[in-house]
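Dear colleague,

Thank you for sharing your sequence with our group. We've completed the structure prediction you requested, and as agreed, I am returning the results in plain text so they can be pasted directly into your records. Please verify that the sequence below matches your submission; if there's any discrepancy, let me know and we will rerun it promptly.
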Amino acid sequence: MSASRGTRLSIPVLATAVVAADQLTKWWAQTSLTPGSATPVAGEFLQWRLVYNPGAAFGTAAAYTWILTVIAGLAVIGLCAFARRVHTYSGATAVGVLLGGAISHFADRLLRAPGFARGHIVDFIDYNGYFVGNVADIAIVGGAAALALLTVLRLEPAASPEPARVDNAV
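Please find the predicted structure tokens below.
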């Protein structure tokens, strides 16, 4: 089924919802949790643990926060451009969620301490001690996985309909 203009308009609505959820939960974490201290949610498997991450996933590239800011900005621009190619409801959902996570991370990099374009990401969901993440991370991973699955299944981006063939043979 082809997406309507309304379906494409759902992308910024979903992105805004993800940004709001991510920023509100980060605000909650910063006002409710003690940095570094663990609060069990589901035993040690899932805990609240407030940390500030200057790097990328798993704290990599911590010395290159400004480069991560540029990459995050480029990701937002690229996703906005890609959103124009979305033709399905499922594709719009995946792109909207992914875009929301990317925008929220970009905003953190731009606006959070220690300074402009060097901001640290607020992480607070500790997954059994393997890594600590946030709502934007969940949105990015979930949106990217959904988009990859839709692409593999050839459901998104939808191919342009092939022009009708005219057979002139008599």
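Summary note from our side: Residues 5-32 form the longest helix (28 residues).

Kind regards,
the structure core
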